[in-house]
Amino acid sequence: MSTLHSHEDIAEMRKKLVKEQRGLRNQKLRTNYALVIGAGLLILLLALALLGPFLTSYSPNEMKIVERLKPPGAEHLLGTDEFGRDLLTRLVYGAQVSMSVGLAVALISSTLGLIIGLYASYYRALDHILMRICDGLVAIPAILLAIALMSALGASALNVIIALTVVFTPNIARVVRSRALVVREQTYIEAIKSQGAGASRIIWGHIAPNTLSILLVQATFVFAEAIISEAALSFLGVGIPAPAASWGNILQAGKLVIYKAWWMVVFPGTALILSVLALNLLGDGLRDYWDPHIKPQRPRKWSLRKKG
């Protein structure tokens, strides 16, 4: 009977512990304002990019010269550009380009960086080769390397993704490798090796899961940097080719008429700022959420006191 009661007590304590841990995680999530604001703003921008084309009746490439450089008004909420195209429609379609390029670069570079970082941390011979290549790529300024690759590949959305993937993969590989080296030296990894586990099982079954949190945080930062880099390439004329809408080439056209049509610079610039801000807040929030040393904050209580 005592053994039965002890088992029941242990099960009850375990359930209570799991419930408390779940409550702490929920509290940490609710009080992580950077994560909540960043995720909400990013969802809003993604919804605008996906649903925006259904909410506007204009074509992004339809030119009406008689309506060129019209200020924001009832007919064109954000005004028109130098060819009379509706700027709101151009921004919405540009959001699709920027978000799709940024997401593709973040996913591909994270996958490649994870593979390179894991195998470089486990095999010392590969470490010397792969990390020296990454060091060489990191030594070149990112925008210059991207411009050089785009000059060789040609202007297109696919080539922008390829160029930016080459630019950002080394940084992710270095971060994953540094984390994987710490995990590889843990005692339980040595125990698994002594039991005869193969390299693939150790790398993908035990080391990789412990690098996913830091990888996801880095992916959000790469997402933001890819959006900025794509806009910079398009601004310089080596990114998304005209007449396709991109925040970068809208800004490039706006700088020529900035004193006549301020809206062509302000609105795409604001869209870039909001998207990068959302992703940076999301990345900071995820980092704080997964950091075990950061305790959940107490929710603020607002009270109204009578004066006098």
Short description:
This protein is mainly α and 308 residues long.
Report on this model:
The chain has eleven helices and no strands. It has 308 residues and is mostly helical. It has a single domain (23-65, 75-290), classed as MetI-like fold (Orthogonal Bundle), CATH 1.10.3720. The longest helix is centred in the middle third of the chain and has 36 residues, at 87-122. The chain is flat, with a radius of gyration of 25 Å.
Secondary structure: number of strands: 0
Biggest sheet statistics: none
CATH architecture: Orthogonal Bundle
Overall mean pLDDT: 84
- Going by CATH, what is the homologous superfamily? MetI-like
**Structural category:** mainly alpha
* Helix content bin: over 70%
- CA distance, first residue to last residue: 66 Å
Name the beta content range. Answer: under 5%
Poorly predicted residue ranges? none
Number of domains: 1
